[in-house]
Predict the 3D structure of the following.
Amino acid sequence: MIAASKPAVEIDHISKRYGRTLALDDVAFDVPRGTVFALLGPNGAGKTTLLHILCTILAPDSGTARIDGIDVRKDPLGARRSLGVVFQEPSLDDRLTVEENLEFHGMVYGVAKPVRRARIAEMLKLVELEKWRGTLARALSSGMKRRLEIARALIHDSRILFLDEPTAGLDAQSRERMWQYLRNAREERELTAIVTTHYIEEVESCDRVCIIDRGRILADDAPAALKARHGHERLRVVARDEATRAEVLAAYPDIAAAQGEEIVLRGGGDAFTESFLTRFGTRIRRLSIEEPSLESVFLSLTGRELRDQAAGARERTYEFGKRGGEHTR
Amino acid sequence: MTDHAIRKVERRPAVLGSWATGLYAIWLREVKRAIRDRGQLIGGVVRPLLYVLIMGIGLNPYFRGEIYGEVRFVVPYTYVQFLFPAVIALNIMYTSVQSAVSVIWDREFGFLREVLVSPMPRVAILTGKILGGTTVAMFHGALVLALARFADLPLTLADLATGLSLMFLLAFALTALGVVIANRIRSFEGFGVFSNVVILPLYFLSSSIFPLDPSLTSAQSRVIYPEWLVTLIQINPLTYAIDSLRGAFIHFHQFDWWLGPAVMISMAVAFFLVAWHDFRRV
């Protein structure tokens, strides 16, 4: 393939303003082919705005983006052909069956009938929904709905998949399985997946993590590299007696903090651990080394934890629909 | 088929054929959803029963004037016959507006977005949606026709053909209107608002349940309608649509025969263009 060397997604100095808020401030990065790329940031950071620009339903104020080499502003229909989208809110038709939902998608994307049939079978197998093909989508659990949406986004052989908060609202087991299907899909077909999330533990297994806050890109690298650069290793020590405890606290006044019976030593690395052990090794009861987490990376980059948001107007309307609303689903 | 072959077929460029498939998919979805919506179906069956069998037959004896012992009908038809074409229009109207409501839900719950990120052009999406709503509305209108024998209405094939084409025009125009309304609504308060604010006023002000021209008989001429009512009826486009349906089914016109089709065609074109304009910005 000629285009193999080109990045799957190229984002070039994109800005978007809503009234007085700058939702995206000069965002630029590339997503290499075949990677699982995570966009990590709190609600309102601009992740969804960016995704909507990439899937051509929102125009940026300035800057360009290319999907598979196609400019999303000049040829939106062409760009849409190579991408699959799983939106934040469920977008299945509840009154159609699992198979009909996939069939509908295939038809709308102009997939020829024999190909459509073959792909539907293949995708149902991938997300393990074969048994449910005749079930109305409304009868599925939320985890199953998500899986169906992933299958649907792949029906037209999209090589670039956008997933906006695909695991929000799912239980731990469904979340784990969702990631498993995504990894399987990537193995089977050189898939590039761009995933937004605010669950920090989920991005550990991604190839690249891009941290975004208040419309700006703060970091963009592999998780390990991010941790090495911005994270801190921590030693948790329990001293054998009070005297030692006092001695440790006194020895490292800048980086030591008492937490209950434990002493937490911030910073370090292997050399520090070695020197600590040489001096106190025989007088401590327990020692554990805490690897730097992405949580600490995020904290040190943004100065705060990932926060949550109150339910907006849309959520309330959605609740109305869920309660049975009139002539709705 | 091998995976390689699959990819090859799939990568072919977009042609009109694939748009047609997409349009058909959207149409099919509308129809399938409507069939599975029990509430809507029950409404479509019960409404004509109430209007034709109860209101129509109930008011039948009062729809005539008596001069010196001679019984004459206000219009040369019985009340059920007079009312019957209007009930068809009513059923079409309810269903068209319900499909507008489905546009709102599609928008709020992201299904519309899923279609909007597909390679289908907006105009094909809109056309599929409106044609789907039109089909369902036609079907609900045709349900009323099943009651034709209770209304003592002999239906010839020619009448039926004319009637069905007029019903199609009306259903298309009203569904397009529904989409226009739906695009402008930001907060949704339920279908009841629509039915009370849009459907019923339009229906009652369309000379649907009483004839407008009181000078048809001498007995009736003594009753003079207030001017505001006559004005409202005359500016209501539905008046002319129902009049043309009457022309098709009972060969009775209160206005020029061409007015109805002309009004409906202009409505269909105008609302479709407005809906298209709105849809490009969604």
Notes: Residues 218 and 272 of chain B are 44 Å apart (CA to CA).
